Every structure is written in structure tokens, then in C-alpha cells.
Amino acid sequence: MNDERSFERTARAWLELGANQAPDRTVQAVLLAIETTPQERDLRIPWRFPSMNGNVFKVAAAAVVVVFVVVGGLAFLGGRQGDVGAPPTVAPTAQPSVTPTSSSSNLTPGTLCTGFCLTGTLDPGTYSFEAGGYSPVALTFTVPAGWTITGDGFVTKHAEGQGELQFSTWDVTHVFADVCNDSVAPVDAGTTAGELASVLSGQTGHTSAVTDVTLGGIPAKQIEMTLQGDGCIEPAGYRFWPGPGPDLNSGYCCMADGSTVTASAVDVDGKRLVVVAYHEAASTTADQAELEAIVDSIAIGDTVSPSP
Amino acid sequence: MERELVEQARQGDRDAFASLVHQVSDALFAVAHRILRDTDLAEDALQVALITAWRELPHLREVDRFEAWVHRILVHACYAEARRSRRWTANVRALPVDGPASPDAHLSVADRDELERAFRRLPIDQRAVFVYHHYLGLPLVEIAETLGIPAGTARSRLHYATRALRAAIEADAEPVLEEGRLA
Known about the structure:
- The complex is a heterodimer.
- Chain A contains five helices and 18 strands.
- By secondary structure, chain A is α+β, with helices and mostly antiparallel strands.
- A ten-stranded mixed sheet of chain A has the order 1-2-4-7-8-9-17-16-13-12, sandwiched between helices. Chain A has a four-stranded mixed sheet with strand order 3-5-6-18. A two-stranded antiparallel sheet of chain A has the order 10-11.
- The relative contact order of chain A is 0.12.
- By secondary structure, chain B is mainly α.
- In chain B, helix 2 (14-36) runs antiparallel to helix 3 and helix 7 crosses helix 9 (151-170).
- Chain B contains nine helices and no strands.
């Protein structure tokens, strides 16, 4: 296994192993379920992907059908379901509700990321990340319409087209000295906002400028970095920093040529929060203003403010 | 995939949807099985995905994209199954072989075992991209579109998954992968 093609052949051969036919019992269970499951048309009933235990799934599926029938009936009668129509307020333990759309989920204001992040289209409003996982400190931020969040904790717009923009939070312990070369061991990024600004501005592969700003009302260092040249690492592209540790199997990477990464670092109770605003060269001025407004809306700490 | 069938199912025709189920269930199950590495979990993910697809079908605006749409639902169902079950982190047994019977020259028993162990340690989202790329042969742009993620994210997940699996084969003592992130 000493070249890429050999690995790909091996991986494909390995993936060929395994089941290729859906068990009849599973297909029959689905067909049976849809006989009594109504389609969602105008009911707009919030739902989630089930998280129930697999051992009880088959039994619970019947209960789900009953619930949908009952809830659907109530909706037809003009009834409202418990907290389904609750006003969109944000609380530390609030969970966004999910409503059906054509192909993705709509999320309403609440906590988006704990150990992992929910995915879906964000309704306008204020959302929060809990400390841990993708953000070293808890924070809230407000988004306008048109933004989505990925399971990796990227709040993004135009993710599938030109001019993508992103907002994300990071715990950065090391950075690569050259954003075009991750084969050299990353350097220590210190522990303070000032130290991070120093090592990022010393990175090669981008032009940078450091300014003093405030983030969430706290003094911060902002490093604006614009990428130069052609994509430099295949297949992943530019690479700014690895995961904390460093963990070389994760990190911040893969930006488009000519894009701008604005990292704002702030020291909060002995932890350093890094907020990244990313936009491509093709991003419109209006979209950039939206991204800037999202960053400006950040409130740091465990107390979350109510959504507008 | 017959557009007419999708349109009929979208209008509430259960027989049409049943036909769609018969058309897509094997492919969906094969993908779920390879992502989750567990038959029971894959069955549950398939059930959830297909029932969800039936419920949501009226909201599908682009009928021609039914197959990609249902794959996206399946992957989300796989994520949910993986979250509720951590069996894969400890379970490193090899899957029963139900595919080609003849041994592949590119796949030794040792490679298979190492791939199996390393793959089970990958984050579920990296597994999904790896399976869609190497099993279904989809290009990254199409994977990104199917999964509803930025192309860079798909690229990053594939990169980290590939790196981990290569390392697992090349050296047994590779560290456990954590979440891959990208811009």
C-alpha cells in the first residue's frame, strides 16, 4: 500500500464487501408503516430524526404513527401541540425545533452546538453554542434569513454556490507556519489573543493585518488574512491550524483562492475563543455586511439573551 | 428513477411510493450498512429514512432530485443511529461477507481488518463521505450537493478519512481520529 491508487483499489475492494440487499422484513415494515402514516402537507408539525433506542424502534414506530394521526387530527381541528408554537426564545438548555422543508431542516432559535452541532437552515434569530465541542466558551449570536449550519459547526451562506461565507468558532492551540504546507509540525500558538495574533500574522501563504477590536464587548485581536496564489494542498487546500492538541486529523482548512479569513481572538476566563469569519472573493458586499453583523452580535458567556 | 412515480407518490399515491421503495431500498441499505457497519442499525436507518421520505415528499420541490434527496435523508438517519449507539467504537468484528465471493487481489485479510477497525473509529460524517466517494463513486461536488454540505467540507472529510485509513494500514499504532473540520 504505497501509493494513492493502490489505497483506492484496496478501499473500494473492502467497501464492496458487505450486505447489498435490504432485508424483506425491513421493506415490508416500511410499506406497512406508510399505509397508516399521513404525508405532511400544510400541517407544519415540527419533527426530529428519531433518537430512540433501536431495540424499541419497531414497537415505537407504531406509537409514532399514532402520535402523527392524533397530532394531525388536532391540527385539523385547529388545536396546537404543546410547545410546538412556543415563542422563539433562547435559553441555555433550549433545543431548536425542526420543521420540514423541501430537502433540509429549519432550525428555530436555540442551542445549536453542544458536543455536536445540529444541521439545517436557520430561521432568523439568536442562537447559542455551548462551551466545549466547537467553542471553548459559551456564546450567542444572531443571524438574518438565509443562513444554515453544518454538523461541523459552520454557520454558512451560499455553501453550494459562489461567494460562500462562514462563521465558526475555534479552540486553537497550534498553527501551521505555512498554510500551504502541513507536513511540517505546527507551531505552538500560545494561550493569549496577542500570542495567536503574532503567530498567525507570521504565517506564510497569506497577507495579514492585525487590529485591536472588541468582541462581545471584550478587547480582542483581529487578524485579517487574505489567501494568495493557487490552491496548494490536494485534496484539502489551504490549512491554517490543526485541531487542538495538536490533532493533525482535524483542523481549519480548504479555503478558496483569494478568500479572506478574519480571525478574532479574545481571552475569556483563561480560555481563548477564536471566532472566524470567512468570505470568498466573489461574496457580495451585502453578504459580507451580514457576516460582519453576525460577528458583531456575539455575546460571550453562559447567559443567553432572548431572541428578537 | 421514474419521474412520474415520484410525482404520483408526492401526490399521496402509496402504491407509487411502494414502487419507489422497491427501487431504492437495496441501494440505500447498502450505503447505510457500509456507513454504520451494523446490520440492525442500517435497517433502522433505512426504515427511518423511507418513512421520513414518505412524510416529507409533498415538500420536495424538485421531483427529479428524489434520489439525491432520499440519500440525504438516509445519511441524516445514519447520523441519528450512530449518535444513539456507540457500539461501533468497541465492536471491531468483521462484517459478514455478502458481496463478491472471490477474494480481491487488492485486499488482504490484514488490510481488511485494519480498514474495518480504523473505519469504525472515524466520525460518522467522514464515513459517509468516504462511502459515497469510494463505494458509489460520486465526485465530491455531487456528494456535497447530496449531503447538503459545502464542497470544501466534503473534501475535508474525505481527506481526513483517507489519511486515517491509509495510516491504519501503513502502521497499526495510528491515533484515533477526531472530528474533521474544514472551511
